[in-house]
Amino acid sequence: MLEHLTKETFQSKVFNYETNKEWKFEGNKPCMIDFYADWCGPCKMVAPILEELAKEYEGKVDIYKVNTEEEQELAAVFGIRSIPSLLFVPLDGQPQMAMGALPKDTFIKAIKDVFGVEKESKAGVDKK
Questions:
Q1: Which of 14, 23, 24, 54 maximizes the CB count within 10 A of its CB?
Q2: Could you read off the pLDDT of 41-98 as tens digits, one per residue?
């Protein structure tokens, strides 16, 4: 199950925008944040993909969800106008926003490109 962030948990795990004017990531591993709403059809399509990615990248990448209906202040801070919107937050550097229901391989490529994190291959290494 993905962790749903409130304003308070967002500030402790991602970014405390009330005390920091400049971006300062509070986490200890890169994260993705899914800004969504329960009524949003494309959001429902992305949800199972994010669940799979959370398992596949466990211990390497945190994946969070923010319900824009319940956490309107968080949505406003990031200027969320359309959902789903996904915020990719690297350990160093500025976060990057992606809009829309992306296919799984696009997420995998973004995790590699933005975070520098490779997915563990399930296949064993051939020793010849």
A1: 14
A2: 999 999 999 999 999 999 999 999 999 999 999 999 999 999 999 999 999 999 999 9
Decide yes or no: CATH 3.40.30.10 for domain 36-90.
yes
What long-range pairs does 100-103 form, CB within 8 A, spacing at least 24? 100/42, 101/42, 101/43, 101/45, 101/46, 102/46, 103/49
Q: In the predicted model, what is the mean pLDDT of the chain?
A: 91
Q: Please count the residues of the chain.
A: 128
Residues assigned a catalytic role: 40, 43
Q: What is the DSSP string of 20-66?
A: -SS-----SS-EEEEEE-TT-HHHHHHHHHHHHHHHHTTTT-EEEEE
In angstroms, the CA 15 to CA 27 distance is 8
**To which residue do tokens 């405390």 refer?**
16
Residue type, 110: A
